[in-house]
Design brief:
Helix content is 9%, strand content 44%. It has 206 residues and is mostly beta strands. The strands form 3 sheets. A 6-stranded antiparallel beta sheet has the order 7-6-9-4-11-12. A 5-stranded antiparallel beta sheet has the order 1-8-5-14-2. The longest helix is centred in the first third of the chain and has 15 residues, at 2-16. The N and C termini lie far apart (58 Å).
């Protein structure tokens, strides 16, 4: 019975990991009014890479990303997406280039993800394994699915080559500057040294 219970718990986690939530702790934008069909609402372009510069998250510290968020720009409704995949990576530069970036770390996969979307709401994806984020480098976010219809994402114009998009099989993606409204939560940074003034920790320092 234990393997069955383990499998049931795993399936329940896969559904719950892709949920509607409040806004993330750090985000590049929360007011994009244009819609992006790629990758979750397109019959042709189901793979996207976005590039977010360090300045897009000016208050974020270097730590582990525990959750990521996408903001929707579609009508409220329930959706089921097939073969969802999200990967993250970091580079020192400020351009994606014109070809798919390889060597990214897979942070979330699901053969089926069901969720209810609220217009303008944030979709939270809990990462089974946190991703180590360096706040001095640019962050590449890749998302894909095999569904041909679903929900659109909100976006505003970003860097000229801030996005690559194309089909799941193409080796020649299209480049533009449509950055999805995106955010994340970070684990608390590790404190390796106790402050010399212990009254700060006691909450009495003014």
């Amino acid at each position: 019975m234990k393997p069955v219970k383990t499998l049931m718990a795993f399936c329940a986690w896969m559904v719950m990991a892709f949920t509607v939530s409040a806004q993330p702790s750090y985000f590049n934008n929360a007011s994009g009014s244009s819609s992006l069909d790629e990758p979750f609402n397109s019959s042709t372009d189901q793979r996207v890479q976005w590039l977010y510069l360090p300045g897009d998250f000016p208050t974020a510290h270097s730590s582990n990303i525990t959750d990521i968020y996408f903001r929707t720009n579609t009508g409220t409704g329930s959706y089921t997406l097939a073969d969802v995949s999200v990967s993250l990576g970091q580079i020192s530069g400020n351009s994606l280039g014109t070809s798919w970036n390889s060597g990214l770390t897979s942070v979330y996969t699901a053969t089926s993800a069901s969720l209810t979307v609220l217009t303008g709401g944030w979709i939270k994806v809990t990462l089974p394994t946190p991703y180590a984020y360096d706040n001095t480098k640019s962050l590449i976010v890749e998302a894909s699915c095999s569904s041909t219809s679903g929900f659109s994402l909100a976006h505003a114009t970003g860097t000229p080559t801030g996005r690559l998009y194309g089909s799941l099989v193409t080796t020649s993606p299209t480049a533009d500057g449509a950055l999805a409204d995106f955010g994340f939560d970070l684990a608390c940074p590790n404190i390796t040294q106790q402050p010399k003034d212990t009254t700060i920790c006691q909450g009495t320092n003014t």
